[in-house]
Amino acid sequence: MNGKKFADRAVYKVMIDAPIETVWSELVKQNTPRPFIWDGEWDAPEFSAGNPYRVMANNGKAVAVIGRILEMDPPRRLVTTFRLTSLPDPASKVTYTLTEKDGKTEFSLVTENVPAGTKSEKSMADGAKFIVENFKAYVETGKVTFGARMMLAVYSLMAPMMPKSMRTENWPYDKAE
Amino acid sequence: MSDDRDMEAVFQALAHKSRRRMLDIVKESPGIGVGHLASEFDVSRVAVIKHLAVLEEAMLVVSEKDGRTRRLYFNAVPIQMIYDRWTSEYSAYWSGGVAGLKYLSEIRARHEESERKKRTKG
Fold first, then answer.
1. Smallest Cα–Cα separation from A96: which of A25, A3, A13, A154?
2. Given an 8 Å threshold on Cβ–Cβ distance, is A132 in contact with B77?
3. What is the mean pLDDT of residues A13-17?
4. Of A61, A20, A23, A22, which Cα lies nearest the Cα of A43?
5. What letter would DSSP give residue A145?
6. Gap from B39 CA to chain A (nearest CA, Å)
7. Contact A8 B92 (CB under 8 A)
8. pTM higher than the cut 0.95
9. With the CA atoms of A107, A112, A116 and A121 taken in that order, what torsion angle do they form, in degrees rounded to the nearest 10?
10. Does A160 sit within 8 Å of B89, measured CB to CB?
11. Which of residues 41-80 of B touch A (CB under 8 A)?
C-alpha cells in the first residue's frame, strides 16, 4: 500500500446468464434475505439516490452495513457508500454495474476509498469475491454455492453471538455517512 | 457443468508464461495503462494486446476506459470459482465444514448456557 490512505480501486466481475432486468431486480430486491450477501436484507426509507440504506441481518435485529445511495440508474448502475457496522473504519464506496452482452449480463462490483491496511480492507476484498461468485450462482440456479450454503448455516448458528454494537437500535438511518 | 466453457477460457489464458506475467504486473499495479504494461515486455505492442484480449476473454483482466488510456485491473473471481469448485464443495464439507459446524454448535450451546445463567442470576 506504500503508506497510502486508501487501498487501490478493486474490480470484481462475472458474466451472469440472465437478462439484465432479472439481474437488477434480484440485486436490489428489498426486505427479503439475499443469500449472496449472507442473507442480509436491503432496507431503505426509499430505495433511490440520496437516501440512506441499511443491510439488515439476523431477521432485522442487527445492521451489517449502513450507507447512502449516491446514484441509481436501473437496470445499469448503483453507487453507494458502504460501512461495515462490525468495524470502526470509515465508509468506502461500492459501485455495482450491469452491462448487457449477447443476452447475458456482465456484473461488476468495484470498491474504492477503502481505508488502507484496515480490517475493512480484508473483509471487503473477501466479501466482494463471495458476493460476485454467489450472486451469479443464485441468479442462474436459484441457489448460492455449496460452500456459501455451509457458511450461511454456520452464520445462523452464530447469530446469537452477534456483537451488541451491531443491534438495529444503534444504527438509525442518520448514521449513514 | 455449464461453467466449463468459462473455466476453459481461464485455463487457456493461464497456459502461457507471458500472460501469467501480465497478470502478476496488473495485480501489483491496479489501473496500469496498456502502454505502460506493454513497455514491460520485449514483444510488440500488438502481441501484448493479443495476450490482453485472451486475458479479458477469460475475465481475468478487466479494462476500463479513462480518457485516452485503457486501465487494467486484475479480477480474482474466475480463480476463486476454480478454487471453490475443488475445495469448498468437497474438502470444506468433509474437513472444515462438518468439524466447523460441530465446533460452532458447541460454542453456541456454551453461549446459551452462560446467557441462561446470567438471566437466572439477574
1. A13
2. yes
3. 96
4. A61
5. -
6. 22
7. no
8. no
9. -30
10. no
11. 59, 62, 64, 73-78, 80
Give the DSSP letter string of B70-104. Answer: EEEEE--HHHHHHHHHHTTTTHIIIIIIHHHHHHH
DSSP state of A38: T
pLDDT of residue B6: 85
Evaluate the omega torsion of the peptide bond into residue A172 and state whether it is cis, within 30 degrees of 0: no
Work out the pLDDT band at B1, boundaries 50, 70, 90.
very low
A121 φ/ψ angles, rounded to the nearest 5 degrees: -60, -50
Shortest Cα distance, chain B CAs vs residue A46, angstroms: 31
The mean-pLDDT minimum among A151-160, B77-86, B93-102 falls in B93-102
Nearest CA-CA distance, residue B14 and chain A, Å? 17
By CB atoms closer than 10 A (0-12, 13-18, 19+), residue A108 is buried
pLDDT tens, position by position, A137-160: 999 999 998 888 888 887 788 888
Residue B101 near residue A157, CB atoms below 8 Å: yes
Task: Kindly give the residue spans of alpha helices, DSSP state H, lying in chain A.
Answer: 20-28, 119-141, 146-158
Taking the C-alpha atoms of residue B111 and residue B103, their distance in angstroms, rounded to an integer, is 12
Nearest CA in chain A to B98: A150
**Contact assignment for A146 to B75 by CB distance below 8 Å:** no
Confidence at A1, pLDDT banded by 50, 70, 90: very low
pLDDT for residue B4 is more than 90: no
Residue B104: per-residue pLDDT: 59
Q: pLDDT averaged over chain B? A: 84
Identify which of A153, A128, A129, A148 has the alpha carbon closest to the alpha carbon of residue A138: A148
Which chain B residues contact residue A153 at CB under 8 A?
101
Asked if the C-beta of B98 comes within 8 angstroms of chain A's C-beta atoms, the answer is no
Give A73-96 pLDDT, tens digit per residue. Answer: 999 999 999 999 999 999 999 999
